[in-house]
Amino acid sequence: MDEHKWESCNVKALINEFFEHDDLKQLTEDTGILLECPLLVLDDTFRVVAHFSPPNFFDRLFKESVACGIITYEVGAVISKSDALCSGKADYIKLDESTFKRRFVPLISTGVRLGYLVCVDTDGHLQKIPSQIWQNIEMILSKQLFIETSRQDKPFETTEEILMHLLDGGFPSEPYFRLQTANTYLAEFNPMAFALIDLTAYHSEYIGKRHLKEEINLHFSDAHEFLYKGDIFLFLHSERDIGIFSELAKEFGLKVIISGRIKSLFELPSLYHTAHEALEMVLGSKFDNNGVFSVANLRTPLLLKNLSNRKDLISPKLLSLAEHDREKDTQYCETLYYYLICSRSLKKTCDALFTHRNTVLYRIRRIQEDFLIPLDDTAAHTELLLGTALLLFNDKGPTFFMNKLPDIE
């Protein structure tokens, strides 16, 4: 359809279809015919609720989404992390797994984000369609999706939606949350922890190998995984589950955070907040391990990260010590840190630093005599340890404090 044709086009046929038949699938087909493009209508959990594919059109990614009834992890992550889509606007995105650019737009009705319209731009004509045409089409599809969602007998169609609503902070109290889960598996669901998987470096193009989703379903049959804000969220039930992630992280290029222990599902929002903060810190730093981390082993760097801008709380004597390290390339702060956490044991400090006894003794003497740091005053040790840890965090980053093995506490 050329540009002049769009100028005279209207959506009267769609409006008639909306009022006469009240059928999302038929409305989606009519929309695809009008726009002359393949398209998907997704709900807010990224499941395909309707689609249209013109004759002779083939795109493997499109075909697999329709066949599976859900879009891939990568596409869900793209949607969740698009600034335009998060602000309610359309976004044109080229996906690695397809030769065609796609137009994504959220479907919103009465202020509620119900899902997404995904149109495949096979020949570049979608960007020529006037914005008013798009607005009318999106409004009609949003209203129809709202009507079909409102027909559900329950406030939530799936337990996945309950969990997403919980993570969004949507339940005012634990009794109300329990009421909503009374007739679902969540009523008796007691997972040990959850994993949060970042997909930034993940690609599903593995010739002769299964995709990540298939691997997760194979190894974690009761994980109930779903996409939340661009990351995979899944539940764990044993220590064995944690061990499986090492191989998956290596094969698929993943960064995985294991949460703290779940005592009650209603605690998920606070546990998620900490796990997500840990994941962001891992992605922003160069951790030298297999890509699997736990909140328990990141607790110290997370604490320091939240205090990292409070230089005003650090003793001037420690600031002078750190300045000397930077100017002279010495290791006084690191020596002081290990000396304190090793309970002032000279042998343990030497072992931690892989440094000769005489060198460590020399540094400790200078710390006391030249920088006037009171190592003999046990009352000052807490302030010295915290201050030194903050200086090392800002200088060396969170990896300095990282324990090697993922644990759950």
Characterize the structure shown.
The protein has 3 domains: 3-150, Beta-Lactamase (2-Layer Sandwich), CATH 3.30.450; 159-306, 2-Layer Sandwich (Alpha-Beta Plaits); 309-401, no CATH class. Helix content is 48%, strand content 13%. It has 18 helices and 10 strands. The strands form 2 sheets. It has a 5-stranded antiparallel beta sheet, sandwiched between helices. It has a 5-stranded mixed beta sheet with strand order 7-8-6-9-10, sandwiched between helices. A hairpin with a 6-residue loop joins strand 3 (91-94) and strand 4 (101-109). The longest helix is centred in the middle third of the chain and has 20 residues, at 131-150. The model has no long low-confidence stretch (mean pLDDT 84).
Overall number of domains = 3
Number of helices: 18
What fraction, in percent, of the residue positions are helical?
40-55%
> Which architecture of the largest domain would the CATH scheme give at its second level?
2-Layer Sandwich
Could you give a short description of this structure?
Helices cover 48% and strands 13% of the residues.
